[in-house]
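We were asked to recover a plausible sequence for a given structure. The inputs and outputs are reproduced exactly as logged, with field labels preserved.

PROBLEM: sequence recovery
POSITIONS: 430
GIVEN STRUCTURE:
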């Protein structure tokens, strides 16, 4: 239910965003129960998943109950759609009631019954988009869902949407200048490309353009780019985490920019990708999504392959949903050490934040019944205080990755090749 724009600075798009924790848990559990019942009765693939697991729909009544079911991955969807075209058995409404069909790489066909769902509107509202904003949407409007779903979400917030699509940088610049565009929807790298190209043409972006806010997805927003947008060009930035196959925004930033609030249209689990068991706050695992409001497309426990964690602390903005921390990598880039996943991207963030370090490699071994982690480091400057660096580095690594390094080895320059695995698993299991 969208809030009408009346000129007042409304903070929330709908009442779901500020539900008390217990009410949200009840709401999500009820939505899950109804979704599973509907899927079992109407989507043959969903019925088969439950039947193979020996689970009745009445046994899935809480989020914890989802652990009884396997994770469905994109490779599974591709094979199912080949075997049972066109939707692999997950369509749960009559085909003639499908509003539109999107296509994601694979290919995977994704049927949508719009039914008034504001798929991304809460995310744009939280980012400040309102009636009076003129916004270029630089995502594709073809068979990918991004362009049209973002467009509709902007309209749900009252903003004027310009369907620019991808590429044509100079046309984008001219349109932004002529129409006094105030908002940008796209990737961070493309916005920076636009800004830099505008400068090459002869514009002073900060003086000549009216861009005030930007919303990003599809690409990580680095802290350096965010700082440049906000400090150098006075553009307020927000980002969202979206996954194509489940059909929408999974989580979105508020003005605090300290994690992304989970959407109430999905059940989101953080799980051990090897076992499917749910993990607690702060533990890194795979993001697994079950849509509960998309009656057309009844995916159950879709494994995104993205690694993240969540926090439960209250947010000063007033929204009460748990928050996803940044996506830290893919399941293929993660190795479990002493029960915790160490992700390459997160390890890089921890180690290379220290300027004296030029290269590193983590080696995982096993001594007795315990995993041991050795960090090998090459230095740019051999005169650095190694003892202090090792202490600071271990603390930083443990804070970010939640695992303590057992040993730090300073190796000669050239010992670690330019092209190398960042994490090497040398464990032998007997």
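RECOVERED SEQUENCE:
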């Amino acid at each position: 239910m969208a809030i009408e724009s009346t000129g007042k600075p409304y903070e929330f798009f709908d009442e779901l965003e500020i539900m008390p924790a217990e009410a949200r848990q009840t709401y999500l559990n009820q939505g899950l129960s109804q979704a599973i019942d509907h899927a079992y009765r109407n989507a043959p693939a969903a019925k088969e998943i439950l039947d193979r697991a020996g689970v009745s729909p009445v046994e899935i009544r809480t989020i914890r109950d989802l652990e009884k079911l396997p994770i469905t991955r994109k490779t599974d969807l591709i094979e199912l759609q080949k075997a049972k075209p066109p939707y692999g058995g997950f369509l749960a409404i009559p085909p003639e009631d499908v509003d539109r069909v999107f296509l994601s790489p694979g290919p995977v066909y994704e049927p949508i019954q719009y039914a008034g769902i504001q798929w991304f509107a809460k995310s744009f509202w939280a980012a400040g988009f309102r009636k009076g904003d003129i916004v270029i949407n630089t995502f594709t409007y073809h068979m990918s869902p991004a362009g049209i779903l973002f467009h509709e979400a902007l309209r749900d917030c009252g903003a004027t949407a310009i369907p620019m699509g991808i590429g044509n940088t100079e046309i984008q610049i001219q349109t932004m200048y002529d129409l006094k565009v105030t908002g940008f929807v796209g990737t961070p790298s493309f916005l920076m490309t636009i800004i830099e190209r505008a400068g090459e043409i002869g514009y002073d972006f900060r003086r000549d353009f009216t861009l005030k806010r930007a919303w990003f997805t599809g690409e990580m927003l680095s802290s350096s780019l965010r700082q440049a947008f906000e400090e150098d060009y006075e553009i307020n930035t927000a980002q969202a985490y979206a996954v194509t196959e489940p059909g929408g925004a999974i989580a979105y930033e508020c003005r605090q920019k300290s994690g992304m609030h989970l959407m109430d249209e999905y059940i989101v689990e953080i799980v051990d990708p090897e076992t499917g068991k749910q993990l607690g706050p702060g533990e890194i695992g795979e993001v697994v999504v079950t849509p509960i409001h998309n009656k057309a497309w009844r995916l159950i426990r879709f494994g995104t392959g993205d690694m993240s964690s969540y926090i439960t602390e209250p947010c000063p903005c007033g929204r009460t949903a748990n928050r996803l921390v940044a996506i830290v990598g893919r399941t293929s880039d993660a190795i479990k050490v002493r029960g915790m996943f160490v992700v390459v991207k997160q390890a890089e963030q921890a180690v290379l934040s220290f300027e004296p370090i030029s290269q590193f490699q983590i080696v995982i071994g096993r001594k007795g019944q315990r995993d041991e982690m050795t960090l090998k480091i090459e230095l740019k400057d051999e005169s650095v205080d190694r003892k202090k660096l090792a202490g600071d580095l271990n603390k930083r690594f443990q804070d970010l990755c939640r695992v303590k390094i057992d040993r730090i080895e300073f190796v000669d320059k050239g010992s670690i090749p330019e092209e190398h695995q960042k994490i090497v698993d040398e464990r032998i299991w007997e």
